[in-house]
Amino acid sequence: MSAYPELYMIIDGERVYAGDRRTHRVVNPATEETLGELPLAEPADLDRALAAAEKGFKIWRNAPAQERAAVLQGAARLLNERADDLARIATMEEGKPFPEARIEVMMNVGLFNFYAGECQRIYGRTLVRPAGMRSTVTKEPVGPVAAFAPWNFPIGNPGRKLGAPIAAGCSVILKSAEEAPASALGVLQALLDAGLPKEVAQAVYGVPDEVSRHLLASPIIRKLSFTGSTVVGKHLAKLAAEDMKRTTMELGGHGPVLVFKDSDLDKVLDTVVPQKFRNAGQVCVSPTRFMIEEDVYDDFVSGFTERAKALKIGNGLDDGVQMGPMANPRRPDAMEKLIGDAKDKGAKLHCGGERIGNQGFYYAPTVLSDVPQEAEIMNTEPFGPVALCNSFRSDDDAITEANRLPYGLAAYAWTQDATRQKRLAREIETGMLGINTAMIGGADSPFGGVKWSGHGSEDGPEGVEACLVTKAVHEG
Ligand code: NAD
Questions:
Q1: Within this chain, do residues 188 and 332 fall inside the same structural domain, yes or no?
Q2: Which of these, 93, 88, 97, lies nearest to 35 by C-alpha position?
Q3: Where's the Aldehyde dehydrogenase domain (predicted)?
Q4: In this structure, which residue's CA is closest to atom 27 in ligand 1?
Q5: Which residues contact ligand 1 via a Cβ below 6 A?
């Protein structure tokens, strides 16, 4: 079994240990044991990271695409070799079951391999002009990127934040979540071991507001990439706007799920229940607001409840565990508040609705039905293991409810009716829509939202495109 490593930052290729810096205590959410003390950056550390990123950009923007591809492919190979160790570390830090953490590593492997191809397909064009004149349009890397990754996918999020800028020829300063630092360090280490020049990518930790203000105030940084809550995203977007930095914002959601009576209910439940409780519901694309056509509503709620009650909960390192603890003590606190408010306002509780045990941040899989619209949980992303079920009568009502909130990240619909499928595809305001499937991503597919869920995409060709700027050169 992999031991938990000593913690450090990586600045200009150097491991920066705590020394006399402030530290953050990293805790195992399953046991509440201390895993390590994470050094927090001082302004001088951030300045050093900025200087390295400036130098790294000059190096990497001129590196041939084949060299960038070789680094990404090499890192993918190393991540594949190190998958078990890295996944164990992620489970210790974040709590999710080991097999889920391993899938995250493999998602990075797929993404780095995809980007290795994509970075060799950054094309420009030549315009038709009179003889003697030449006009070209080229794509150039935007510049050093400040990237902020949250704790819920401790391997996947840093992989996204590092992969796209590196493919595009940018340098990057990554501040991933202080709660799960060793996973991100493992991803960056694989890139460095695969030959990434040391100046190109840095990993810093700190007091989030101090780090983001410092980095975003620097003219060296030309792009902000943030994944996290809408409230923090709006704050950071304002800071970025002061210097007209580009932004990719992957923010919160409140995933609507429309289930029509013509669908195979058992198949739907067998798909959506594991999706709901994946990573204890702490997933931005989690299915959340279940809207069920009234004829099958009762059967859906009872089938959901039965499956939720049967889930095996425990330490994510133990065999057969299907749901681990929540990642930090803020989440069960939030569940208690949101679910208490929903019950007070008339929602029916079918299972869960309580913490489990007195050690670790566990919260039971919870099913609520008839949840009134005015309950806070119907309007605020719960980010936890709770399904909110309500019935609908007409397609119009279901679509209206799906679009009611200012969020638009992921949405799901289950119906066999082809005409209805087309209508839903056109009318649901969302960045990603799954019709008769919960698989809404992939290395080759854009991942991102609309409205308050943010703008810009990660993954797919769009992920690299988001790190490029366009230049037109006209020669007479
Ligand atoms: P939070 O809003 O305080 O933090 C969310 C993330 O942003 C964390 O990773 C945090 O380190 C970072 N952050 C916070 N303030 C920052 C700042 N000033 N500068 C830079 N980064 C900053 O809340 P939290 O308790 O960590 O998470 C709760 C909520 O965040 C959830 O309810 C969910 O809505 C959202 N969230 C979304 C995602 C996602 O994948 N979109 C991931 C994690 C959390």
A1: no
A2: 93
A3: 20-473
A4: 229
A5: 148, 150-152, 177, 208-209, 212, 227-229, 231-232, 236, 250-252, 284, 330, 381, 383
